[in-house]
Amino acid sequence: METSVTWAPTELMLGGTATPAAGGGRFAVYNPATEEALVEIADAGPADAARAMDLAAATQGAWAATPARRRAEILRRAFELVEQYRDRFALLITLEMGKPLAESHAEVTYGAEFLRWFSEEAVRINGRYTAAPSGNGRILVAKQPVGPTLAITPWNFPLAMGTRKVAAAVAAGCTMIVKPAPDTPLTMLLFAEVMAEAGLPEGVLSVLPTSDAPALSGPLLADPRLRKLTFTGSTAVGKSLLAQAAGRVLRTSMELGGNAPFVVFADADVDAAVEGALAAKMRNGGEACTAANRIHVDNAVLEEFTAKLTARMAKLTLGDGTQAGVDVGPLINQRQRSKVGELVDDAVDRGATLLLGGQPVAGPGYFYPPTVLTEIPSAARLLTEEVFGPVAAIAGFDGEEAGVAAANATEFGLAAYIYTRDLDRALRVAERVESGMVGVNRGIISDPAAPFGGIRESGLGREGGSEGIEEYLETKYIALT
Ligand code: NAD
């Protein structure tokens, strides 16, 4: 198939215009399936950050005053254009990130849907007007855009992690500077072109890929004109950005790491649970913040579940995501592959049983095979750290109480999955599981119309749903006589 990307954008998008980096620097973007460079792109530095900030600040007033209907129409047009260019987006996602083309198409659908969803939300930003209960005056509550926002995005969903921020910001009337992950900047640059084509006014959106993230984000977070930081990425980086944001008391939305439990109770439909686990574990090759990191199965059905999941995992084909018939692509880079290998080796060294995979795969390409481990000792790092790879870690438990305790044995709280045929138990457990999202008898939960986000060390705030736009709005109380 055609894998050349001579059409991929390679300059910065400064306020909607392709622009070389002020310092003239460039860096290469690699294909993780071949380890070959795809293209070299402009490398943004502090001077570019300053130019983007000037544009965002200068445009904010006019953009906030643009009628919501107009902002909605731009987003709706962008939704249609992303669909129109879906083959290009999907190919670019596969080439820079590695996931199989079918999954890239699923991401295009998911990513585009944020544009449609927020085009519908833009015209429903409502305040309220009430009489003060004391009889002393009236209360008017207005919503206003937060203002210029810095968005920092990860590499695992190069389109969707961007659109769910940009679409909400555009709907609310905020200008935005996006710093995409250095592994996958091409998709976001293409998306910025699409936004310009959709009619987004010059200055509203800048996309600044860089090989030196702190050199870009540091000055922006210190700039008094910036009003908000929205970040999706690891908890460690999120904590350091939160500390910087505290310096200026910035509004923040933090979508951080996960350690999702997938809990199968004794009364579950085991076949459905196996299919759900496969989806929750293997979507995006395991490189998803919502990925089932720990699979806890009641000992009553542990043997059956483990045998069936291992058989399903064994049938998955590993390979270059551009090729037909491939189910699992490479990991994003060598660092990520080493980390996955380390966590598996640590579990095996501590006594876990390896049922499938676990061996390095010859390169080129950062491949790691679908792997299943069971009888994982509680001290294994796999149970406490996010593996972010195609590794199913299965552990047994006895009874509902132990299942809930296992699910909550983490400082994270993004997604959780429970399988049971008992509705009472489903609701009881869903209420007790400490996470921002719970899937009941389903392994995929992401939906642009639902509030996505975590509690505890998985983050602050929500993206998508009617909650998503609130993250970009300030509440103003106007006291009336
Ligand atoms: P990462 O934290 O390494 O990087 C995320 C982004 O932050 C990238 O753009 C990176 O360049 C930038 N960055 C890194 N160090 C920085 C610094 N010192 N200053 C400023 N920016 C910096 O995460 P990743 O490896 O790209 O993504 C994987 C992580 O993201 C996982 O932990 C995953 O759970 C999480 N994630 C969370 C969600 C969610 O919605 N909660 C969604 C997707 C991914």
From TrEMBL:
Transmembrane segments: none annotated. One of its GO terms (molecular function) is succinate-semialdehyde dehydrogenase (NAD+) activity. SUPFAM superfamilies: ALDH-like. One of its GO terms (biological process) is gamma-aminobutyric acid catabolic process. Gene3D superfamilies: Aldehyde Dehydrogenase, Chain A, domain 1 (3.40.605.10), Aldehyde Dehydrogenase, Chain A, domain 2 (3.40.309.10). The active site is at 255. Keywords: Oxidoreductase. InterPro entries: Ald_DH/histidinol_DH, Ald_DH_C, Ald_DH_CS_GLU, Ald_DH_N, Aldehyde_DH_dom, Aldehyde_DH_Superfamily. Residues 25-478 form the Aldehyde dehydrogenase domain. CDD domains: ALDH_F5_SSADH_GabD. It comes from the Bacteria. Belongs to the aldehyde dehydrogenase family. This is NAD-dependent succinate-semialdehyde dehydrogenase. It comes from Mycolicibacter engbaekii.
